[in-house]
Amino acid sequence: MNRPLVGIIMGSASDWDVVKEAHKILDEFDVPHEYRVLSAHRAPAAVTEYALSAEKRGLKVIIGAAGGAAHLAGVLAAQTLLPVLGIPMESPALKGMDSLLSTVQMPAGIPVGTLAIGKAGAKNAALLAIGILALSDPKLRDRLQLYRETQTKSVLAQKLEG
Ligand code: RP5
After folding, report:
1. Does residue 66's CB lie within 6 angstroms of at least one atom of ligand 1?
2. Cβ-count burial of 85 within 10 angstroms (0-12 exposed, 13-18 middle, 19+ buried)?
3. Is the shortest distance between the CB of 68 and ligand 1 below 6 Å?
4. Global pTM?
5. Nearest-atom index, ligand 1, CA of 66
6. How many Å lie between the centroid of ligand 1 and the Cα of residue 66?
7. pLDDT digits (tens, 9 = 90+) for 63-121
8. By CB neighbour count within 10 A (0-12 exposed, 13-18 middle, 19+ buried), where does 142 fall?
9. What are the angstrom distances between the C-alpha of 60 and each of 30, 37, 53, 137?
10. SS3 per residue for 64-120
């Protein structure tokens, strides 16, 4: 098994149904990746250990997914120079607006590349991670191009019943 290039961290196993959309896309592109539950408030020391060791372990991008006062991606980003992408979970109380704002509204100095709330964000986080890796991997870039072309063809082939 190749060393993982992308690390997906989520705040709870209850996020997995959404976050696995990112895992499925990375699988589809054969991008070695790992995924695990680590919480910034329930397991802060483990989040720190993960972030501090990520670059040395060969990771290139980290995806952080959390809901509520979702500071997980920001806490990861604060402790690594790797690019961190954030997926706000759709929380029951505020439909993910809480997660979105607490992920996207990072004060200047520590960026988190925040994607959309929920499954669209999970898919796009994986695609953005692939885009970052593709900058130095021409074969991966070709696959990303093919993915886009296939997507375009499928949109143009859509038929509406009238
Ligand atoms: C966050 O709290 C998690 O990312 C999850 O979205 C939310 C609720 O977690 P559970 O109470 O379902 O474990 O930390």
Report:
1. yes
2. buried
3. yes
4. 0.97
5. 4
6. 7
7. 999 999 989 999 999 999 999 999 999 999 999 999 999 999 999 999 999 999 999 99
8. exposed
9. 15, 19, 12, 12
10. EEECCCCCHHHHHHCCCCCCEEEEECCCCCCCCHHHHHHHHCCCCCCCCEECCCCHH
Single-letter amino acid, residue 11: G
Which residue's alpha carbon is at the smallest distance from atom 13 of ligand 1?
A: 12
- Atom 2 (ligand 1): residue with closest C-alpha? 67
Q: Is 51 in the pocket of ligand 1 (CB under 6 A)?
A: no
Q: Strands of 113-114's sheet, edge to edge?
A: 33-37, 6-10, 61-66, 84-88, 113-114
Residue 141, helix vs strand vs coil: helix
Rounded to 5°, the CA angle 145-77-86 comes to 50
